[in-house]
Amino acid sequence: MPLSELLRISFNTLRANKLRAALTLSGIIIGVFSIIAIMTLLNALQAGIEGGLSELGSNTFQIQKFPAIQVGGPGGNRKYRNRPDITYEQGIRLMDKATMYKYISLEDYIYQKTLKTSKETTNPNYYVGGVLPTYLECNNRSVQYGRFITEVDLINNNRVAVIGMDGVDKLFPNVDPIGKYITIDNSEFQVIGVFEKKGEGFGSSNDNFALLPITTIQQIYGKNNRSINIAIQAPSKETYNECVENVISVMRTIRKDKPGEPDSFEIYSNESLISQVNSFTVYFKYGAGFISFIAMLAAGVGIMNIMLVSVTERTKEIGIRKAIGANNKKCSHAVSYRSNYSM
């Protein structure tokens, strides 16, 4: 039969059975759409995880007392709580003895703080950090306007602060904050800079903080009741692993970790964080893939049922015609005539 005749028969059949054609088309659309939707959601989830966890700079890792992601509940974290704090003096010794790094930033954080001016007050969900001038290189941050903390600020224990954009929006709406003063726990600080806005990650803001010179924060809050974090940037991607090994070796010596015992500190990087989170979300991905497979299977069963009905109808009709002497050519023309007549 000519191709034009087959196409004409097909279109005539679709017109004659509009509901059946619509159901078949719906099954195809639902099946394909379910796969596309699930894959899009999984890709968005992966991108969100990587974006939310990429908080460190390139070729950078961080040392801290507790793991970046803690699991196992209170019992599982007991061994981390029993570790000795990482002190400021240990950080200084690491800077002196390590040989394979490009930048090191010592960071001392205090959480659940409120920032105030004479007219405005933030929520008590801000954190205050004492840092070195190398903080920017190690943490993938940049100052939008104003300046960052300098060595002079460290030496003189200057009461200056660089704040995130959330603090600007709340405390200085429509006002240039540079040179203005904020109060934290009854101590006054001059705003010298504002960070570029970074947005939210995992439902929490990345812009609700203020950074001070680390010597200033330790002068006000002391330095013997908290564990500091240490951010290290390797000289290059090629020397990253060697830098990590060098820092671990020096840090174990400083903290007097005995041979054969595990490290008394944690090291994490963007890649390790993403890998750890992906190990938790892999089962969600499997479940999403299984759901999309079920949706595709259900749509396929519906399409096969409709096709089976169509074939069964034609099989019976063609069988009757052959029984009374029709050949294949006549059956084809009869089916074509039936399709036209059904219109």
Polypeptide structure, described:
It is a single chain. The two termini are 21 Å apart. By secondary structure, this protein is α+β, with helices and mostly antiparallel strands. Helix 2 packs antiparallel against helix 11 and helix 5 crosses helix 10. It contains twelve helices and twelve strands. The C terminus is likely disordered.
Short recap of the structure:
The chain is an alpha+beta fold and 343 residues long. It is 52% helix and 18% strand.
DSSP helical segment count: 12
Strand runs, count: 12
Structural class: alpha+beta
Note the main sheet.
10 strands, mixed
**Oligomeric description of these chains:** single chain
Helix fraction bin: 40-55%
The shape is elongated
Mean pLDDT: 81
Taking all Cα atoms into account, the compactness measure Rg is 34 Å
User: In angstroms, what separates the terminal alpha carbons?
Assistant: 21 Å
Q: What is the N-to-C order of secondary-structure elements (H for helix, E for strand)?
A: HHEHHHEEHEHEHEEEEEHEHEHH
Uncertain regions: pLDDT < 50 for 5+ in a row? 337-343
- The fraction of residues in strands falls at 15-25%
